[in-house]
Amino acid sequence: MLYSIRWEKLPFSNPVVAGGRPTYEPNIIHVKITFLDESGQQVQVTRPYEQWIGVCPNHVEKVIETLEHHFPDCKPIRYTYVGNTRKILPYFESRLLKNRLDSPEKPFYMLYFRTCCHEVGRFFNKYKFCYYDKADWLVRLYIDLCTKYHTQGFYYKWYTVHQASDLVESLEMHPDHTQAPDWTIGVFDLETVPMDGEDRVPIGLDETDEIVMISLYKWNRRQGLRHWLLYRLPCDSPPPDMDRTHAYTSERQLLNGFHALIQDCQVLTGYNINGFDLPCLFTRLLWLQMYSILKHYSSVNVGTSVVTTFQQKIVLDLYHYFRIFSNYDLPGFKLDVVASMKLNETKVPIQSTGLWSWYTHPQVSADLLHHHSVEECHRILQPRRLPTAQFGTFKDYMYYCLKDSFLVYRLFEKEMVLSFLTE
């Protein structure tokens, strides 16, 4: 059995050959579909697809007349009557807010025509279609992200509709409607340090920016939840005693270890990984000339953003997910705020910039690395503009990095992100 996980509209359709001459069919697109089989391996196929526009008019002839007037090249127009029991309704969100989800008095038609559906859709301002089945009270909303967000992908979301006075409140996401493959999902978080001691955000663009710590949680149905913490030792010392940790003596070794661990992941996620973690990984690999790993990275423009991925894995950034789909009006959508709101749980209450002192201060020693007193560590390292209450031992920062990834894992599962974004 194959499970569809990604639908990508290819940027240009292949011409149709008619009478020995290629002709362009603007209503035909080619969609590349990525599947997972039952063993988790990816399979890709490309299929042609004839686009259409859905309308719910009382008189479909008037719609066709309007189309032919404004789009004289769209002939011939043909249509298919779908019926009254299953509808595709335009303006789904506005109808939802007005409690007018169903339109039983109007029939539904699928219109096919030889012109660009985007132009017709832009004319009618109908980018969203929903079919509504009263038999099982299930709503499927289809959004063409190619038009709305200038990307090349589609997503689907399913709802169960309950009998509630407020129709918005009556919608509940329906995660069990389709079977899901046994995904291997990885969530990770980076900690970086400006090794030159400068007071700046180390995003990887400077040669002295270094990735010193990476936490990783992986899970699937077969093996459950597992975690790792990979870090570079700040000094010549035995590693602190902590389960599932791997200590390295160089950033190069650390990055090799991390990329080996994510090989079997089909999905990578994190918080603001499109804005920070993935670009930082990319630039550090570039600085270190680790081309054997770097060649597996690629980037694509999504709207005004550049999204980086590794080995064509599905990358889901929960920061953007909550910015787009959350009902909360949160300041900046910081991980700590979202986790507090959704999970009633927060990050380890120390400042990440305190980790810089552990890697740049000359008095970091093996004894200090294993010290349990925050006050003593603060007295010796004297972190810049950080009170003792916002500082931590080296082990505290190991827990800090792990906790960030754990919170994202909890949010990912609580929100059922894959069920929400894939069919």
Q: What report would you give on this structure?
A:
This is DNA polymerase delta catalytic subunit. The two termini are 14 Å apart. The chain contains 15 helices and 21 strands. By secondary structure, the chain is an alpha+beta fold. The chain has a six-stranded mixed β-sheet with strand order 17-16-15-14-18-21, with helices on both faces. Strand 2 (16-18) and strand 3 (21-23) form a beta hairpin. The relative contact order is 0.10.
Summarize the structure.
30% of the residues lie in helices and 30% in strands. The chain is α+β, with helices and mostly antiparallel strands and 423 residues long.
**Low-pLDDT segments:** 85-93, 125-179
Mean pLDDT: 76
Strand order of the largest sheet: 17-16-15-14-18-21
Approximate helicity band: 25-40%
Number of helices: 15
| Structural class designation | alpha+beta
Shape: elongated
Rg over C-alpha atoms, rounded to the nearest angstrom: 26 Å
Strand tally: 21
The first-to-last residue Cα distance is 14 Å
Q: How much β-strand is present in the residues?
A: 25-35%
Major sheet attributes:
6 strands, mixed
Domain DNA-directed DNA polymerase family B exonuclease: 168-325
GO biological process, one term: DNA-templated DNA replication
GO molecular function: DNA-directed DNA polymerase activity; nucleic acid binding
Protein name: DNA polymerase delta catalytic subunit
Helices, strands, pairings?
Layout: E1 3-9, E2 16-18, E3 21-23, E4 28-36, E5 42-50, E6 53-55, H1 60-70, E7 78-83, E8 86-88, H2 92-97, E9 108-112, H3 117-124, E10 128-133, E11 138-144, H4 145-148, E12 154-161, H5 167-170, E13 171-173, E14 185-194, E15 209-220, E16 224-232, E17 245-248, H6 251-261, E18 267-270, H7 273-287, H8 291-294, E19 297-302, E20 305-310, E21 314-317, H9 318-325, H10 335-343, H11 354-360, H12 366-369, H13 374-381, H14 394-415, H15 417-421
Parallel strand pairs: 14-18, 16-17, 18-21
Antiparallel strand pairs: 1-4, 2-3, 4-5, 6-9, 7-9, 8-10, 10-11, 11-12, 12-13, 14-15, 15-16, 19-20
Helix pairs in contact: 10-14
